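Entry 14. Ran structure prediction on the chain below.
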Amino acid sequence: MEWEETLIYDNALREEKDVQDWVEEGAIKRSFSGGLILENALSEKLGDYAHWTFWIPQEFPSDIKIEWKFKPLREPGLCMVFFAAKGKNNQSIFSEALQRRTGYYPQYHHGDLNAYHLSYFRHKYETERAFRTCNLRKSYGFHFAAQGADPLPPVEDALEFYKVKLIKFQNRITFYINDLKLLDWIDEGKNGKPLNSGMVGFRQMAPMKAIYKDLKIYALKKKDG
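Output, structure tokens:
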């Protein structure tokens, strides 16, 4: 299906002012050198409590295309993107009525949120590194939705930035890296109605270190006729 695109968010991610209004959940160490470098600021000994989520403080429409450039710098670790995120009663994820989140993963899939979440660099555990996939899930709950192969190499072989593209149009979600389609899934409402508008956020599992740049988000509209 063809659509019209309108750029609604454009962030180079090159300096502190670019993310000064983003919402940090958990402790993030960030720096800038040709892009936004993100890693955890807490000791890895804290395990699942050392991870974090970083939200764009803006609600996006239901039909969107998200693009960014990504390069892994240190592993093991995992990188994930949340989208269509809202509170359990359709309120903002920043509503004071919701429980406070600190980056601990169960707060995101069995807390007060509904969201899609896609893990696209799954190099945290030995089993993930042995057979590399991208996994799409839907919450509330930890519902497995779809899986695709992960072409991203380990850090020592990552010689360039990779172009990541995620499209949510109506109830269909597609995911690409360097324009290679990896995942294509239609939400038929098996675990609740398809999710619509909401927030976008990025997540890393410690001790992952990665660099991001050139984030763009487009609103999509079905072409007339």
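The chain has a mean pLDDT of 96. Will compare against last week's run tomorrow.
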